[in-house]
Amino acid sequence: MGCLCKYASEYAVIVIKKGKKRRWWTHPMLLRRKSHGHFHVNYEECRHHPDWFEDEYLMPIPVYDELLSLLSRNLSKQDTNMRKSIGPCERLAVTLQ
User: Which pLDDT score, from 0 to 100, does residue 85 have?
Assistant: First the structure.
């Protein structure tokens, strides 16, 4: 094992990446998350079908709503100038899936 480390250090090459120009500040796909993202597309539809909701989130809608009301202060984050935060409802949904 000691020999392997000795040889590995002798042949180690330091790679310095040249700075690439960014094409986008935020990728266009991520900008469409509010309209095309899994949560935003399926959540409202699942709420209209309690059996789908229970399959997706593993609990009935009233239990989910109660859990969300208990945890929403802890799941809330502050928006910044750079980006909008993910809301508590979406955070909880992603955690439960």
Answer: 84
